Amino acid sequence: MKVETVKKLLAREAYRLCCRSDFAWRYLANLTPSLMYRRMRRPLSPLQQSLLTALRRDGIVLTSIQDFFGDLRLFEELESAVWDCETKAAEELRKAQMDVGVDGGRSKDYVVSLLGALPVLDPSSIFVRFALQPELMDIVNSYFGMLTKLRYYNVWHTFPTLADPKASQLWHRDPEDRAVLKLFVYLTDVDEEAGPLSYAPGTQARGSIKIEPESNLFKEGQTYVSRSNDTQMRAILPPECWVTAVGPKGTIVLADTRGYHKGGWARERERVVYTCMFASQASTSPEVFRRQGSIPLYPDQVMTFAVGR
After folding, report:
1. For the whole model, what pTM was predicted?
2. pLDDT tens digits, 23-33
3. CATH architecture entry for 3-307
4. Of the residues 97, 129, 214, 270, which has the fewest C-beta atoms closer than 10 A?
């Protein structure tokens, strides 16, 4: 076994052990980002504080572009960029729609990532700039209690399917970190028939529910993944407690996806959503984008940290 491989395995195991304890995760694995946050943190507005309180309690919170950002210009730029992507990907989307539910297809054949599997990290792109808005970064870093890294961004176009739920349409936890904060911005109206995110509040690492549901193993690609169905989730949390994140275009969902969640099981209507993900610096999961060239320094050190190496 190569020395580099051994080092990676040891690093993953050390990080896995640190993630068992909030203290070890924060002050051993992520000491520098935690200290930087204490020095750089900014006061939150009453709305930000209210959203943060609910997010810490439940692991999920909903608001709107208008309420959260006030200024709609970046959202309008995002929306325009997404529809440009839709136009360029029209043929791919048409073929993908025809292949939904076909035996032997992709495990997530119901969704197309409009920016590709590994978009190039371009700080001037609206898809990056939207994620790095101070109003959002302040809540993200306050939730973690440290400066965080942008690890992923994309736009999902989800198609309706009559097939049974599979992959991330079943209840699961994201594996990237002890806390994994994702932003979802709806670019279409999302009702219960358009595959909204569903969340089991309190199941995040610092939540009140410590019981895990029974689960089944599914082979997805080269790995086996643990997933739970509604019956298994119902045994630890009744459906009336689940959060179903429906909302009109412009709805914002912030969720700690280390809590149990599912989404994308559209039955009648398509869903288009922008999403980005933040995790701690010490997370051993790779970035889901490609870097080309150096990243410019931002006037805001929080933004520089989020996209720096």
Report:
1. 0.93
2. 999 999 999 99
3. Sandwich (2.60)
4. 214
